[in-house]
Structure formats: structure tokens, C-alpha cells
Amino acid sequence: MSGSRLVCAGCGWEPPAGTMYPFRCARSGSDDVDHVLEHRLGADAVLDRGGDDNPFVRYREGLYAWHAARAHGLGDGAFVDLVRRLDDSIAAVDGHGFRVTPFGRQLALGERTGVELWLKDETGNVAGSHKARHLMGILLFLEVVEQAMKPPLAIASCGNAALAAAVLARAASRALQVFVPPDAEPAVLDRLHTLGATVVACPRAPGERGDPCMRRFHEALAAGALPFCCQGNENGLAIDGGQTLVFEMLASGAPPLDDLVVQVGGGALASACMQAFGRAVERGMLAHAPRVHTVQTQGAAPLRRAWALVRQRAHDNAASADDALGFAAAHRSEFMWPWEEVPHSVASGILDDETYDWLAVLRGMAATGGTPVVVDEPTLRQANELALESTGIGASPTGTASLAGLLQLQRECLIAPGVRVGVLFTGVQR
Ligand SMILES: Cc1ncc(COP(=O)(O)O)c(C=O)c1O
Ligand SMILES: [Zn+2]
Question: Which parts of the chain have pLDDT scores under 70?
Fold first, then answer.
């Protein structure tokens, strides 16, 4: 397939030819290796085809779905037609389809924070967040490979990812099961019902560790549903679509960033950003990636915990960060496990009790010189107010958590005055 391959980043497994749904490593769950399928793009793929304001047309060659289409005898023109058809249906459901989202310098916010601040604004994206990007990469793949049989789709989420999944599933006329906690917001549940999703409330069993929604989601997958989610470990193809966000930033004509701050829940967004910069550097589109920093809340910070353990291991063994990360890849449970306390935060969208895409994100931070920061609740609120006052954009506290991360990084003297910093407002305030 034109040098484009799926490979498990943990064990090297590749889906055998003819695998209908190559979403997960076949060995995942069999040992303590961190199994995540990664799309390795062939050297000849043209990342930016230019000339289109639909990112899934412009950056189509970066998608595994595009390469799968070629392998299935579907030409480039037919793939573009498919994107446009789906996008029209999405517009009919949600008011508009995928378009390049705003990326620009924010003078007022820059003045308030003392840096040259650049903002990528996802609040006007499909379903009000960046999440639909991840899912569009998966949906295009399904549309390419499936014929008559279209199994139901499934996701565990009660927020932006669920809404994005419901919009896209509706646009493609597919059944979707959404596994939500019992206290999910009524407004979100109403919208999910309106979009035709089957919503399943998942109470926590007494003493249950881990997320009950994830347990029910896995039961649905075992019964034949397909993972339509924004977590790379469940569906490696989720990462491709998320990368369009960075490609748009690179094509905007903005000068290269020194630092980028990304909010992290399950880690797919940060993983997509890291991989996109990697691809861009490989192709000479950019001299080097910015330092990519990550942000979690005090409510749940399993990524920073894993980072501290990796550094400890490197220190104790006088090993390099790369060696320690290699060890971590083969001993997942020593580095990543569900956060013990039930997490609370005003940034409720990044309270995942595990950072599912942790390893790719740690590798990206190690490679770029980034740091994982943890922000407290007053800082999350301060950033949210500052965002609205300085930009007029009504983003949610999760959406502005990257700005909270910037404030924290400055307090820790990890970002110098005047440098060029990017932040992402990832979701709208509902
Ligand atoms: C608005 C918003 N921003 C950021 C994130 C974090 O993304 P990820 O879970 O891929 O780390 C989420 C969801 O989790 C979200 O809803
Ligand atoms: Zn594997």
C-alpha cells in the first residue's frame, strides 16, 4: 500500500493483508507491552496537497483511509468525492462541515501573558470541538472498506467526543452506542438522543477500579461493535485525523512556534500533534518541532506520574530517556494505571483516569524538550476568564486548559518571556 503501513509501536505486529478492521494490535491484552497501532506514512506521500479549505481533502494523503482506498481500487478523485459527500451530510446534521479553523496571533492575550501568543481555535469545528477530526479519519476508512455489512459503532464518553461521534454517525447513517456515566450532563444526553444515538448509562459497581463506561464499551466491542472513539490504543486510526489540526497551523504562514501547550485527557490529541510535527519535520516542511508541553489537572494526572517514573528509572539506571521509555513500553503497568481517586475538575473533559496514548506523548515530550504540567482549579478558572476577556471566544474550561498550562509553565520558569507560544482552545462552552 504505497509504503503506508500500520505497525504496533509496542511489539512490531502488523495486521495481515486482508484484515478488515485493523484498529488494534492482535497481541494487546496478552502481556504488559503497550500495544498501539501506529500509521507509518510512506516517504512518497504528499502531506499537503494544497488548494482546498476542507482539511480532509487537503491533507488526505496523510490518512490511512486514503491509502486503503487506493488498495481497494478507489482512485484519488473518488476518495475526494467521498470526503465531500460525507462532509455535505455532516453539514446537514451540524450546520457546517470541516473547514480550516482559525489560527492567529492574539495581541491582547499575548500582552496579558507576556509572550507572543498564537491561538488555534477549535470551538467552531464540527460538533464544537477538535474531536470530530479524530473520528473523521476512522469514518473515511470505514466508508472505503465496508460493503453491505455495517456493524454498529461504539464510544465511551459523555462530552465532546460523544457529540462528535453522534454527528458523524448520523451523517453516515450508522448506529452508534454511547456509554456514559450516570451523572452525564442532561443537555449532552438530549443532544445525543436527538442525533439518534443509543445512550447507555454505566454506574460504577461497588469497589470497581477503572472506568465502568470503558468496561461496557469493551463488552460492546466483544459483541461486534466497532471502536468509534478518540483513543489510539482502541483505534489507531483515530490519530491520523487529529493531525490535520497541526497541518493547518503549519500551512497558515505563521512563523514557527517555540512552544506548544496541549491539554491532555486520554492523550490522542497530544499524540496526534507529536506525530504531525514528526511527519512535517521528516518532509522538510519545518526545521524542528516546537517544545510540546502537556497539561493535566490536579484531579487526575496519570501522565505526569508516568513521566516522573520514567525519569526516575533513567536516573536510577544511568540510562538515557530513550532507554527508559523503551523499558516503559514493555512494562506498561509499572508506569500507567488508573488514577486512584475519583477525579473532579472544572476541566471535566480531561479527567480520563488513564492517559491511553501516554507512551507516544511521553516520547514526543522527550524528543521536543516539553514538560508535563499539572494545573490547579483556580488557574483553570483564571485562564478561562482571561480567554474570554482577551479574545471574546467562549471556550470551556477544558478548552482553555492549555492556556492554564501556559500560566503554570511560566510560574515554573519553563517558558521565557517573549517567546512564541501556541495554545489550543479545543472546545466550546455549552
Ligand atoms: C475540549 C477538549 N479538549 C481536549 C481534550 C483532550 O483530548 P485527549 O483526550 O485526546 O487527550 C478533550 C477530550 O478529552 C476535550 O473534550
Ligand atoms: Zn502490539
Answer: 1-2
